[in-house]
Design a protein that fits this description.
By secondary structure, the protein is an alpha+beta fold. Helix content is 43%, strand content 22%. It contains 10 helices and 10 strands.
């Protein structure tokens, strides 16, 4: 394909018979073609393009610099051979689905570097359509994410090691309580109750800590009320009827369990330190309401220490809650510092609570 044909198809330009093409039109297209190539070569990402049927016929300079391949050697289907052997089948399947459906293409794979090593890369592509809605070309990018991928894996190892040590601490504490109870029979009922609470704290920790695909719990509560009940078992107020959960009970899965657990674990911890749960008379009411594509949650504290106003500063936990609600759950959160107790209003996107049927884990 000539550069002129390439650009004409990329921009959906219909070209008539050769005798009808004016020199000015050809010059315009050549200038547009030149500008397109200058732009893509200036980008830090690898840029590629295909015909509507997926035939690769263009790569920018970054692609050849990264791969070290001769110009034109990866045209057609040659691109797939650049992927790690373990990633090639999946890359083909995802690409074929995009070609069949017109859906945006996105995948993470290992791409062979000119050094011979494989580096993690994020591949994306979008279709260009003409006025009739027909796909005339696909434009894609490859972004080297190897450094961030390695950092994420390292952080995951550290997180799992820290979690393991924290769970060991819970186990040691439970063991010490059990030993003390065996030596003092009158302490056994209290010890058993305390051990139950520590075990609940351990379960809350397992839900609340950040998870990867490898460390995510295999079985979790399948509804929002079920998860909240599990997370808040550590607090005596729940067993005493001073911490209640009412309203709708939408289904959830592991997609939303961790950010929800983070949010309510933080709210409960702060309440136990400074709010209603720090008082023997204090109450917390949690209500859940499903409204079309939105889930409304209310955390209402009462009968605790009197609140004189909004705190002058916020800690890391508050920022963590904000990020979990706004980014991971696509929602909003508002705190109202009423004199009678803290009120927290959250609105979450319903489609963030659970994966769509058939979506990958």
């Amino acid at each position: 394909m000539s550069e002129l044909d390439f650009l004409a198809q990329a921009f959906g330009v219909t070209r008539g018979p050769a005798e009808d093409r004016s020199l000015s039109a050809r010059d315009t297209l050549r200038r547009m073609n030149s500008a397109f190539r200058i732009l893509t070569d200036a980008m830090p990402q690898m840029v590629w393009s295909t015909l509507p049927d997926g035939f690769h016929d263009y790569y920018n300079a970054r692609w050849y610099e990264f791969t070290g391949m001769p110009a034109g050697s990866t045209d057609g289907e040659g691109w797939n051979g650049m992927f790690h052997p373990d990633d090639q089948e999946q890359a083909w399947n995802v690409w074929r689905r995009s070609l069949e459906t017109g859906e945006p293409y996105e995948i993470t794979y290992r791409l062979r570097h000119h050094s011979g090593d494989y580096r993690w890369t994020l591949g994306r592509a979008l279709p260009l359509r003409n006025e009739q809605g027909e796909i005339v070309r696909w434009i894609g990018t490859c972004t080297d994410i190897h450094a961030s991928k390695m950092m994420a894996e390292e952080n995951e190892v550290l997180s799992r090691e820290l979690s393991h040590r924290i769970k060991n601490i819970f186990a040691v504490i439970n063991g010490l309580i059990g030993m003390s109870a065996r030596q003092n029979a009158e302490l056994r009922p209290l010890a058993a109750e305390l051990q139950d609470r520590i075990a609940a704290l351990g379960r809350a920790h397992e839900f609340a800590r950040p998870h990867s695909e490898q460390s995510r719990p295999v079985t979790i509560a399948s509804t929002l009320q079920g998860l909240l009940t599990e997370i808040l078992k550590a607090y005596p107020a729940q067993g005493e009827g001073r911490l209640t959960i009412d309203g709708d009970d939408p289904e959830i899965d592991d997609r939303s369990a961790t950010p929800i657990a983070l949010v309510f674990h933080e709210l409960a911890t702060n309440s136990a330190k400074y709010g209603a749960l720090s008082s023997e008379r204090g109450t917390v009411d949690i209500t859940i309401a499903s409204r079309n594509d939105e889930i409304a949650l209310h955390w209402i504290e009462a009968r605790g220490p009197e609140i004189l106003g909004e705190p002058a500063s916020t800690g890391f936990g508050t920022k963590l809650v904000q990020l979990a609600v706004t980014q991971q759950l696509a929602g909003s959160i508002t705190r109202l510092w009423d004199r009678q107790g803290l009120r927290v209003e959250m609105r979450l996107s319903a489609d963030r609570l659970k994966r769509a049927d058939g979506a990958p884990v």
